[in-house]
Amino acid sequence: MPDTSDQEILLLIRNESTRNRGFEILVRKYQQKVYYLIRRMVLSHDDADDISQDVFVKVWENIHNFREESKLFTWIYRIATNEALNFLKQSERKRIMSEGAGLPSTSVSQDPYFSGDEIQAKFYDAIRLLPPRQQLVFNLKYFEELKYEEISDILNVSTGALKASYHHAVKKIMNFLDPG
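RE: above sequence
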């Protein structure tokens, strides 16, 4: 029910007799967006799926703390970005311990769920090489088409810092795609 407003969803969730139904609607409304936000940050479909589930568990456990100072979407995206960044930090630590520092060991083209061409694979690999925060800002701006103000609410970072981060990310991607 993507047509159900966030206010209606929150009313359902806050009513004990309709809480499960409200949460089910919330998940259906935001599940795909959350999954793709996370999927663009992590290579594996399975990891993105697991992280998405963790996000909705946290939403379920903490929805009573949602104060409506921001949009519900913003609050859920904040949880999703934090979960994805935590996963990337943990993965990086594990990778460094097992194989030493360096570039990520796999390419998006090695993912069995990836169906793009060589240029798309190179583009996604360029994004994966960005530092996690730049990667996140780039994904939110480029793929999610969010305004800097919305990203600022999600990440709790000034719009000026976001613009600079996005600019640096674009330059790095362009340099990766055309090093000449």
